[in-house]
Design goal:
174 residues, 2 domains, 6 strands, Macrophage Migration Inhibitory Factor
């Protein structure tokens, strides 16, 4: 009888271990999927404008860059960030709601980026700004500027094919 009980206990232990391994693997795969729900292509630029803040921008921007890269799957080398200051901002709508002055983000994207990719970048930038600055997402305003072919000068030439800037080769569309 004892021998049979040990077999049952051992089989339950093996089943429990297999269950734990499967659950761990499942959560690991899910977390990878959440990391970059939409694999972003393109090379957006992020211009951040605010009133002067009491933080070192040179330390914040690399943190934001890494965070956005992790969330979008976009390599850090494909997104450029720059921060500038306003001398003054008057935004009574925020003040009436008990929020401080806004931070404005101009997101420049190539036209071949999908709506989902652009939204992923916007949400990632907003989350990173909230994490690394004193701004809440309610104080963050992001406006997207979409560059079409023939409207973008980069790398010493006018872009006539998205492959010039790491996008899809669209020479057949012409």
């Amino acid at each position: 009888m004892k021998f049979r009980s040990i077999k049952v206990i051992n089989s339950l232990f093996i089943a429990k271990a297999a269950f734990v391994i499967l659950i761990t693997l499942t959560f690991s795969l899910l977390s990878t999927g959440l990391r970059a729900q939409v694999k972003v292509t393109g090379d957006p630029m992020v211009k951040i404008t605010s009133l002067p803040i009491d933080q070192e921008i040179s330390k914040i921007l690399p943190l934001i860059s890494k965070e956005v890269s992790d969330k979008t799957g976009l390599d850090e080398t494909f997104i450029t960030y720059y921060w500038q200051y306003f001398e003054n901002i008057y935004c009574p709508g925020l003040e009436a709601n008990g929020l401080k002055c806004p931070i404005f983000i101009d997101l420049y994207t190539p036209a071949f980026m999908s709506k989902e990719e652009i939204q992923t970048v916007m949400k990632s930038v907003a989350a990173a700004l909230e994490k690394y600055t004193d701004y809440s997402q309610k104080e963050i305003f992001i406006h997207t500027h979409i560059a079409e072919k023939h409207q973008l000068f980069i790398n010493g030439d006018v872009v006539t094919n998205w492959s010039q800037v790491g996008g899809p080769d669209d020479s057949e569309d012409e």
